[in-house]
Write a structure and sequence with these properties.
The structure holds two protein chains of two kinds.
Chain A lengths: L13 E4 L2 E6 L17 H4 L9 H20 L3 H19 L6 H16 L7 H16 L5 H13 L7 H11 L1
Antiparallel strand pairs in A: 1-2
Helix pairs in contact in A: 2-3, 2-5, 3-4, 4-5, 4-6, 5-6
Chain B lengths: L8 E10 L6 H16 L3 E6 L2 E7 L2 E6 L2 E7 L6 H16 L5 E2 L1 E12 L2 H11 L20 E7 L3 E13 L20 E13 L3 E2 L5 H21 L1
Antiparallel strand pairs in B: 1-5, 1-7, 2-3, 3-4, 4-5, 6-11, 7-10, 8-9, 9-10
Classes of the chains: A mainly alpha, B alpha+beta.
């Protein structure tokens, strides 16, 4: 490097004010304690798992995680694998709903999943439907305290995928009311 | 000798939630405070500025809402921060639904434990004897004699979580002790208004991005105070 290139113009590091050049410079990199952490918090970072198996966080991080994993793995398998994974989910949903600590939004998602799968009457799910179910379970796993509005967004995704998310009995009621 | 947390009582509990600058507080702050006023009436405004409002909830509790953070501060919150939890259950959901905070950059719980002593020297001695305070030698930095008001602090962090602990001995004075007219004979002496105490100030936090839909204030306060009570002496005693 030529010697001329080694010359640093200190004024380039000084802030210009109306009165002229300010004495302060920013030659050193500023270090602050606030760092921009972009890592997404894991549930186990936020909540302490208790020794009890039925503890809410333990259930979410073990049983819901297992259901999500099964749905994910079956996606790569054949229709029988997918059907098995969906059947397991179907059997587990009433137990999940019985837990106390879900938010209103998460309860709405569990209920919608329950009715969606019941109303499909054992017919194999389409790819869109399977994806919507997996996504809904993933949302419960990631954020079990969904606000009601965000929960309804997930329910809407199930509806868009072609599910009937209301209880079967409700359609009879709608029919009677519309008569 | 090892420090025992059972000798201490919690004098302050704080739950602080930080978020990226949230300009909607200028629109939604009123709705947030009104909802809390309906639930926790009567609220008394302590300070109100464009970038933040702080409110007194009762004699022992106050809450603040700012452009980048909100906090709940409770003095004498209970052995397991029960009062802090009661307030957090009401305030945090309102923060999410009314102010429309959808993610937090840091959630922290700060708890201050206190043990009272009869003299300043005794308090200092307790810190020297029960913590890993570095060995003191006379005349270092021109300080000699029995050390007073020692203070020891440290921090440890992982990618998502962290804690900082500060242990200190100090002498404080009760300044706002006013008796009603006619009871002047009960006025304590100046010596009685002096407090010699050892404080352990713990800040336990998650500093990764937390979605609002992941937050249950009840479970956070409940779980974190258990963690603090379980591990704090191990952190200090090694």
């Amino acid at each position: 490097m030529a010697d001329a290139q080694k010359i640093v113009d200190l004024n380039a590091y000084r802030r210009t004010t109306a009165q002229g050049l300010e004495a302060t410079s920013t030659l050193a990199v500023e270090v602050t304690r606030e760092t921009s952490n972009t890592k997404l918090t894991d549930l186990t970072d936020l909540y302490e798992k208790s020794d009890q198996e039925n503890d809410f966080v333990s259930v979410v991080t073990s049983r819901v995680a297992r259901l999500k994993q099964q749905l994910h793995e079956a996606k790569l398998g054949d229709n029988i694998d997918k059907d098995d994974a969906v059947s397991l989910l179907k059997a587990e949903l009433p137990n999940l709903f019985a837990l106390d600590d879900w938010s209103d939004g998460s309860s709405a998602v569990i209920l919608a999943l329950h009715h969606s799968l019941r109303n499909s009457k054992g017919i194999a799910l389409s790819a869109d439907q399977y994806f919507a179910v997996e996504r809904a379970v993933g949302r419960l796993l990631q954020a079990p305290f969904l606000s009601f509005d965000n929960g309804l967004d997930v329910v809407d995704e199930l509806k868009v995928a072609g599910f009937d998310t209301d209880p079967e009995e409700a359609s009879i009621l709608y029919g009677l009311l519309n008569e | 000798m090892a420090l025992e947390l059972d000798d201490f009582q919690i004098i302050t509990g704080v739950l602080e939630l930080r978020y990226p600058d949230h300009f909607l507080i200028w629109d939604n702050s009123g709705a947030f405070w009104q909802e809390l006023a309906n639930e926790l009436a009567p609220l008394k405004v302590k300070q109100a500025e464009p970038n933040g409002v702080s409110v007194r909830i009762d004699k022992h509790a106050q809450a603040a809402l700012g452009i980048d953070r909100a906090s709940i501060t409770v003095t004498k919150p209970g052995a397991h921060c029960e009062r802090l939890k009661e307030l957090a259950i009401k305030i945090v959901p309102a923060l999410i639904t009314k102010v429309k905070i959808d993610q937090f950059s840091r959630i922290g719980m700060r708890v201050v434990f206190e043990k009272a002593f009869s003299s300043r020297e005794e308090a200092a001695k307790y810190v020297f004897e029960n913590t890993s305070f570095p060995e003191r030698k006379d005349n270092l930095m021109n300080v000699s004699g029995q050390g007073l008001d020692p203070e020891l602090g440290f921090r440890s962090e992982s990618e998502s979580k962290g804690y900082s602990v500060k242990i200190l001995a100090r002498q404080g004075r009760i300044v706002d002790f006013n008796l009603p007219a006619g009871f002047e004979q009960l006025q304590p002496t100046q010596e009685e208004l002096v407090k010699n105490q050892v404080l352990i100030d713990v800040d336990y936090y998650v500093h990764s991005v937390t979605l609002a839909d992941q937050v249950s204030a009840e479970q956070i306060v409940d779980g974190w105070i258990k963690v603090i009570r379980r591990d704090l002496t191990k952190v200090i005693n090694g």
